[in-house]
Amino acid sequence: DAGVTQSPTHLIKTRGQQVTLRCSPKSGHDTVSWYQQALGQGPQFIFQYYEEEERQRGNFPDRFSGHQFPNYSSELNVNALLLGDSALYLCASSKEGYGYTFGSGTRLTVV
Amino acid sequence: QKEVEQDPGPLSVPEGAIVSLNCTYSNSAFQYFMWYRQYSRKGPELLMYTYSSGNKEDGRFTAQVDKSSKYISLFIRDSQPSDSATYLCAMSAPGGSYIPTFGRGTSLIVHP
Question: Does the CB of A60 have a partner CB in chain B at under 8 Å?
């Protein structure tokens, strides 16, 4: 049973560019949440998608946007990248609020 | 003040020691309490899940929740070098899809 898969594993972008990260949830899960984890910090909640709609959002600017597809997979988009956006981006899937399962993350470096 | 406070460590112990990891929180609405283990450059992996107050044991791991003090603990018995990782506490409230709020994590090093 495949868990949560994220792509790409690593990414280097230049300040001001845009980036798209992808996530496939665990089989049977219908909800996808995205977190940002800076070095030495805990994961910070960005937003959650359910039934292709953004259901909840954390304290992140509008430069962070997302999408969920009919097959429950999801994308995280970040526009106008800043150096401070460098972090590990984690995707977590769940079913009806239970069983948050994390992927291995995408490490984004902004130079 | 952050909703969830956790000492980042590092905590260094010899193999076989009993490890105690702790978090405090400020939000009285939290009802669900979790401990995740995160190895370097990997995603968090759920270790323990507890609802409300009390203790829960799973093998070498014991989770304790004291809601009156807003304090949770994870104990690891007979610690092994393979337990070396960052341990994240997380908690959530009913409603709002039980979205976990995390502490910053404690780095644990178990040396042979």
Answer: no
